[in-house]
Amino acid sequence: MRIELDQDICVGSGNCVISAPDVFDQRDDDGIAFLLEENPSAERESAVKEAEALCPALAIRVHKK
């Protein structure tokens, strides 16, 4: 899978970090999310899909390879 994260529309809610802390993190200065891993393993799919669903700004898109 491949993850797309649109930082321009991220509101810094942190739901993605809570759902998938091995894949997402937040910048210290403004809380905007960033990817730790753009192509996570299949074992993380459930957590990443949850992060996508919980994002209030719809800033996360998960694509199947």
Automatic annotation (TrEMBL):
Residues 1-29 form the 4Fe-4S ferredoxin-type domain. Its cofactor is [3Fe-4S] cluster. Pfam families: Fer4_13. It comes from the Bacteria. GO terms for molecular function: 3 iron, 4 sulfur cluster binding; electron transfer activity; iron ion binding. Coiled coil: none annotated. Ferredoxins are iron-sulfur proteins that transfer electrons in a wide variety of metabolic reactions. This is Ferredoxin. It comes from Brevibacterium aurantiacum.
